[in-house]
User: Fold these one by one.
Assistant:
Number 1:
Amino acid sequence: MPTTQPHIVIIGGGFGGLYAAQHLKHAPAQISLLDRRNFHLFQPLLYQVATGGLSPANISAPLRAILKTQKNTSVLLAEVVDINPQARTLSFRDGESLSYDYLIVSTGASHNYFGNAHWEKHAPGLKTIEDATEIRRRVLLAFEAAERESDPILRQAWLRFVVIGGGPTGVELAGALAEIAHETLKDNFRKINPADAEILLIEAGERILAPYAPELSEKARLALEKLGARVKLKTAVTDIQAGQITLKYQEQSEELKTQTILWGAGVQASPLGKVLAQGTGVELDRAGRVKVEPDLSLPGHPEIFVIGDLACLIQDGKQVPGVAPAAMQAGKYVARLLQQKIHNPQVKSTPFHYLDKGSMATIGRSLAVVQVGKLQFSGLLAWLMWLFIHILYLVEFTNRLMVLMQWGWNYLSRNRSARLITGETKLPFNADVVVPVSELSPRV
Amino acid sequence: MPTTQPHIVIIGGGFGGLYAAQHLKHAPAQISLLDRRNFHLFQPLLYQVATGGLSPANISAPLRAILKTQKNTSVLLAEVVDINPQARTLSFRDGESLSYDYLIVSTGASHNYFGNAHWEKHAPGLKTIEDATEIRRRVLLAFEAAERESDPILRQAWLRFVVIGGGPTGVELAGALAEIAHETLKDNFRKINPADAEILLIEAGERILAPYAPELSEKARLALEKLGARVKLKTAVTDIQAGQITLKYQEQSEELKTQTILWGAGVQASPLGKVLAQGTGVELDRAGRVKVEPDLSLPGHPEIFVIGDLACLIQDGKQVPGVAPAAMQAGKYVARLLQQKIHNPQVKSTPFHYLDKGSMATIGRSLAVVQVGKLQFSGLLAWLMWLFIHILYLVEFTNRLMVLMQWGWNYLSRNRSARLITGETKLPFNADVVVPVSELSPRV
């Protein structure tokens, strides 16, 4: 038995890293949880912040507060830029380093622009709190700019919102935008009717929510159309420029003027995947995910584990999906395995097994689709299930009460109170668009 | 009678401008409310956002949402940079212009660094939502940096918080900081004890909360000291540099290392005051406020009114204070006067009379001071009065329920859930401060 306790370092305070830390509560080890941010983010509700329904603090909880009673665990605000598996050390951006005995890498993924990195500034994705407030800013500013715009073509460009990617994020964003246009902003403007907004959801595949049963995809599409969004299937994005997007449907190209493009497509694993590959020679998949052993360890490095969206693991012929439940299960699994290893370093691990408890996506007020194995739900029942499950997960943090109250309030009042345009907004909205005097004053 | 309705333009959606707009609801006029932001900000609670107790959206309400049923009123997101009183037109930053028949200028005030503008970047003030999240970021980062700092001198600099100015803002900030250090962050750290934080409130005068009775000032000082803050009276700030402040107490200079300096002193009127002075020759006071007529109009321009913090009006030998109730009363007064003028342009106005309903400042949980005429309250009773009044004012917006719930929750749990470090934070915290490796790992 070692006389000092082993040092377990966890990089990333998302679902995987945080659950690993929490399940190491009684481990005879020193645990360091590193994150660039001081809070855990409940990412499944990020679209609610992007669309003004919840405040950032409603879906975030300080990591220190969550772990304050867990005496074997330190939280450090730090950004890891390098990993040296031979020396078992990490390097931080500020030049400092840290040694470990066991390492859990759980740094997730961000957007993938498929080689078109220059699209990002015109079509922001949704992964961080800052992404969410930036999207909120753009969406709300677009309605403000439309109100001040007299040219009908330019005004329509401000009122056209294009969401790219028919996965859960794209569907949730499109649904929330439709609700904003048709309900939240009703009567808020004098020159425009927010309901004239055109909300387009672009999906390259044959249906939205592809992992779901085809009937649910179709129900989701119909629900979106009913809310006032338009779904364009089999449609690819071929170009994005300031104020303009080019789409391709069958062999036909279409150019659309739009001031608001949101990116909900593609996943690019955290750059620490590449760092691990360079340091150990492990393989990465096309999205940059690390191909791990069945026990989530790195090939040749039983002391390093990769979990969550950064990991690539094939189970029963299918890739374990990049969703919160998979990351949580992996965090819990690795925590247990490590405790066994601390007692007996030679222990033989049983493979990680992801249990798919089902998938759910919400489309709008009272509308969701849920699939549990072969069971399918949609409509109000599915929405209540979605609500219940999300509240249940939030229960472990301090925000459950506030979120529930805020939702109840939003639901009853059909309001979204967090509609703040914050951050740097230089007026005019866009140098290309000039608002004529004549349209501004009611009298001139 | 004119055949078209007069156009009343209100610049600024703070307490003065918003109340003016609301009290013009039934006026036979077209009203345009202009603001650079899309929301009304409940500024008296801004310090709660700066200290992580409330979210920005809790104390903000979209101007459009507040005024959506008021059909004679348009809200425009616009920044006014020039006023031409002869032509009766305004110019926006984006080059557009707008004409008016009556103008209400209510653009408030910001910080005054008394000729030391370069202090601002080291000692941010608290006037906007962005100021509040920036202060929150600095305060929370300071504790994070202290946790990673091994040099005791440098660590103490991170744990030293200097608040400048013993007015309500300074007192509220110092009290909230003391609560954060002693209650909120308890057990959150492993290397530092947040209660070791040193919170200094610097006041150049003989007592804090100078407009209050001396007994209340003393009670507030004692309450702050009891919470764990230190109050330095008769102490002037003579210099501020990165990581350092110089104070002067009776001919003695003292240099203090500190990474967090907050500015709660001084008021500088909005630059539109100067614009009005250049256009009309009216006088400004030392803080840049516009000297107005007893009916709040501009001398020589009965169609222009200046209200709120931007106005300088002497009443009964004393200046009407720059507080929310004064701005609200002025807004209501001008709205009524304008309705009379629309009916009869020759109407003779009765002077504006500010009714001082009392002052209140909160120091911490269950601690406040209240002065109503000669009546004085302090302690829990005063705090409950403070709470009641603030909830009452918020009642007019949609956030009352959420704020009440959030406060109730914070009060019971002694928690502050909005403790997010958002925005651009480049690690390391400060290039001057290097964290030695040896302190980071529990084992190295």
Note: Chain A touches chain B through 77 residues (CB under 8 Å).
Number 2:
Amino acid sequence: MKYRFIKITAGLFIWTLLAGSIGISNTAMAKNVILIIGDGMDDHQITIARNYLVGSRGKLLLDQLPMRSAVQVLTVDEKNPQRALYVADSANSATSMATGVVTSPGRIGTTAGSDQDVINLVELSQRQGIKVGLVTTSSITDATPASFYAHVSERGCENPNAMVEYEKYAGIIVDCSQDLKANEGLGSISEQLVKSGVDVALGGGMKHFTAAMEGSNISVLTEAVNQGYKVVTQMDELKGQHGGKLLGLFSPSTMPVRWQGQGGRKAENPETSFMNIFHPMLGSVIYPEPMRCEDNPDYGDMPSLALMSETALAELTTDGTKSFFLMIESASIDKQAHERKACGSIGELQQLDEVLAVALNFANSHPETLILVTADHGHAAQVLPERTIYEALDVPIHSPGQVARIKTPEGAIMTVNYATNNFVSEEHTGVNVPLLSNSNGVGRIPAMLTQPEIFTIVKDYLFD
Amino acid sequence: MKYRFIKITAGLFIWTLLAGSIGISNTAMAKNVILIIGDGMDDHQITIARNYLVGSRGKLLLDQLPMRSAVQVLTVDEKNPQRALYVADSANSATSMATGVVTSPGRIGTTAGSDQDVINLVELSQRQGIKVGLVTTSSITDATPASFYAHVSERGCENPNAMVEYEKYAGIIVDCSQDLKANEGLGSISEQLVKSGVDVALGGGMKHFTAAMEGSNISVLTEAVNQGYKVVTQMDELKGQHGGKLLGLFSPSTMPVRWQGQGGRKAENPETSFMNIFHPMLGSVIYPEPMRCEDNPDYGDMPSLALMSETALAELTTDGTKSFFLMIESASIDKQAHERKACGSIGELQQLDEVLAVALNFANSHPETLILVTADHGHAAQVLPERTIYEALDVPIHSPGQVARIKTPEGAIMTVNYATNNFVSEEHTGVNVPLLSNSNGVGRIPAMLTQPEIFTIVKDYLFD
């Protein structure tokens, strides 16, 4: 059943007829939206990055945007879609932004419980003749980018081999049987991407394109070429004009991040002395040694998010006057926070800030460009006092979780706490997240809104 | 040495002369500022309260304000004031707002290291003939209100008996010897309040007024009466017009809070089964039972923060046309979060939202009123997923800290995590905090600013 999808499509069809009859052309109203998403980039992540990159009194570029709003992140229960959940994942939160529909965790462009496809910004743009680009440091099939072009019941179903009882991680089984083309579904996420007609798609995730298309003996990558995509896999290939459709896949899955903790260290448990066995307030505690952030040796010659974004902007404007929609995601602010790697998150937030410089520069010469910067959901990391506020008491006070003590370039120590669970990977949190914009957002965006309203803002800006 | 104080005072004196000579009168430019501070009210606290009070899709009154900004909270090291600290306490953060000067934790209206007094908004207002009110649910001598009228080296020096090697809590010794009047200081905080000339001061903290004034045999409370204060201690006494100066002290220290967890419960440690002794991922885990919030039986007949604020507004406007500055603090959002009492914080954030209704109603009939709502620093609480995002794995994943699982009126479960330390009281965090305003702040307040700039905004609005 694709009821919702069909209903909205019919409305658009009528609108398009009307627009045609009164002579509105796309070129006449050329407007662009650049939606920059920091995955997990809540105010804590921004503060952590600011403290390190420009100092506590400094301003990141995103801090200097003229408009700030806050976003209520909404999620519902798959079994009872009337019931609120208070913490999102990247699939349901990106679906909110891409479709305006609140759904349950793990879902990509489909409704909670009823599994109906809902029209997304890529489809709406294409129906209006507007070009579309997607850029990310994750797999291009990962939840955030996928929500802008795909419809599938589970985010893990990223390629044709991951559709039926697929074990994504140890014990985590995903199943999208109902999305198989054999069952009148749209197939896996990578298959949907190569059919989507997205003009530019740049990121990681090559491993999701090497399997054979469902019911075929050609790979998804070959199908991409058949669909008119130029495929690039190396940074050097990004340079110059490409024309036509461009698919860049620069790593097997998530692209390596720019930075790591000194010697590859991440957050660690404070160590308590022997006496602590008898009572938590006996003995002493040693906090992890402070560390600097350093280049990640695995980063190699990855293209930066800024370079990919510049390429995407060039491709989307080859014909000069047409509007476009471009989504750019710095994905590993989140992924590094899951792994308690504060330096990794900081470097990826720096990547996002560099992208914003690219976008603002573009908007200088293309003033009808609305730039939005937001996060999809909150994350675990918190800045703790360097010394506990109870330090006068001679007791071993420490975080019950894990901490990274980062030496900041301004000569101080920043303690970053990860304490949402005792597992190998931290949890998201349910805090409202920031939404920032350039001057085109001023007066257009309320000071507080729900995440699905971001969809409406983009849609209204591009199509109204 | 009070160098800074004297320098600014001299400037003001010249300004006042100039203003007098060109005929500027205070009544001609009647403008009011109501600064509402939620202690520890970061975006997580707001989200937690919103989810409970109006549902995840609802809007608090503060969510509906037209202007949102974010505030960089700045703190420096007492021993090396050039060095940043990344987490504030309520003393140094309120000093930022009240004086525009960044100082070290624990300091009230004095500089880090050099211990110089810096002029505050109360003193500036009084020099301009502008009335001043202070309302709080904490002791009126606690760090946040104190920073607006007092100058002392340590926030704990709240009364004449707490000035020299005073043990505030077990093991926590405060000492303000240099602030003794005998040492040419200004004395304790309560002594400074009764000398301050603040027009209305309402809150808790009676115990800080019963001791004798330094070098005298009359109590601070008697001195308040001698200084022209009408002293009230019961809610019923708040009603009606008072005229003159008003001091309300409704509890011995912090006023009791409105709400508590069911049966007085707070956040609790998840319980793991026997097998967990051998490995954290063996066995099973039982999360604390969900609970509702309920009335706190100790609240008694405390005046609400809204009622105190209404009284303050009435007193500040008895002569109709003069400007005023009113600071209102909901103090126990923070204090309850320290104690891991999510329901307590929610109830006190509700109190703040009710105050905002009072302020907005006042501004309806007094349109030259700038209303600011902000927090002084971040706090520990985080919203975690109801079920871990790794629930498909059959392992006992749980917060390493303590959690409160709150049954929300919209029929869901909100898990609030407290995991900044293993001590009896949680830590503050270093996140940037929100600043909201009514329409008079639109175009006047940048989308991101440092906390001392709040001082400048208030000063410029009232005096420029």
Note: Confidence is low (pLDDT under 50) at residues 1-28 of chain A.
